[in-house]
Amino acid sequence: MNNRAVIVDRGYRSYDEERLGRRGAMRAIVKEGFRRVLGLRRKARRKLFPWSLIGISAAIAFIFVGLHWVAGVALGPSAPDLPGYGEYFDLNSGIAILFIAFAAPALLVPDRVEGVLNIYLSRPLRMVDYLAAKIAALAILVLSFYLVPEILMHLGLSVVSTEGFLSYMGANLDILWKVPVVALAYFTAHAALAVTAAALIPREGFAAGAFFGGLFILNGIGELLTQLDMTGAKYAAFLAVEEYPRVIRDWIFDIDTVDYLVERSGFEQWTAVPATVAVALLATTVVWARYRRLP
């Protein structure tokens, strides 16, 4: 057997394609984020979990439309008020939390663990660009998770409406701003915690578990502390970050689903808006402090 090393001259070629600069690099990271989370161009097992959640979310929207159609045909104008756009967020957000718990660590953890940040951060990309592209990918995915089923439901309800398609669409124009605003509130509150966990924990599974468990542990701690007989105990209600978007949803849609901890502690519903912004700013600070020291 010949063990001599062999040098093969394959020729050196410099990169002669179009140079897209910083924005091009960020777009590439966003596209790669879509592929990574949705399992595109990867084995079937990588697609199973995210696409199952997307399928369940869409199926619930069609079930809502079916209920409205059956009630309209069977009972006509006397049909009771069925769950609508606001209530759909309650069901969909439970599935969306699982999606966020999966997506945020999938976007951030592997690059750190596999030591490829140096490659990403070669010119012209900066750390802030890298993080912005990752958050943009997560935002597009999560907002689509909320908005696409709501759009399908809106079209479906317009089709089955006894008022007629155009009349229903015209009578529900407020949906066009209410649904995106509430979806943004859900994304901001929940993704802030998920990204923070993914930035601090070096294992995807542990980061997902910390986010998922942390949401409900904070709810429980907030509930316990607000019951203490001490000055300022009611402010512990703001530990229930998981409930912020639900409170905002009730406020914007003017519905009353549940008395959430913030409301039971005597705060107005609108206070959930600055609380959500504060959580997002705190998460941004923590994530930036973590990544500025890398790689």
What does this protein look like?
With 295 residues, the chain is mainly alpha-helical. 70% of the residues lie in helices and 0% in strands. It has eleven helices and no strands. It has helices at 21-38, 44-75, 85-113, 117-120, 127-160, 165-171, 175-200, 204-226, 244-253, 261-264, 272-291. The two termini are 43 Å apart. The relative contact order is 0.11. The model has no long low-confidence stretch (mean pLDDT 89).
What key phrases describe this protein's structure?
single chain, mainly alpha
Topology:
Layout (H helix, E strand, L loop, with lengths): L20 H18 L5 H32 L9 H29 L3 H4 L6 H34 L4 H7 L3 H26 L3 H23 L17 H10 L7 H4 L7 H20 L4
Helix pairs in contact: 1-5, 2-3, 2-5, 3-5, 3-7, 3-8, 3-9, 5-6, 5-7, 7-8, 7-9, 7-11, 9-11
Brief synopsis:
The protein has about 300 residues and is an all-alpha fold.
Q: Mean of the pLDDT scores?
A: 89
Helices, by number, come to 11
User: Which class of secondary structure composition applies to the elements?
Assistant: mainly alpha
Spans of 5+ residues with little confidence (pLDDT < 50)? Answer: none
Radius of gyration: 23 Å
Q: Any idea what the shape is?
A: globular
- Percentage of β-strand residues: under 5%
Rounded to the nearest angstrom, the distance between the terminal CA atoms is: 43 Å
Helical fraction equals over 70%
- Give the helices and strands as they follow along the chain: HHHHHHHHHHH
The largest sheet, given as strand count, sense and whether it forms a barrel, is: none
The overall strand count is 0
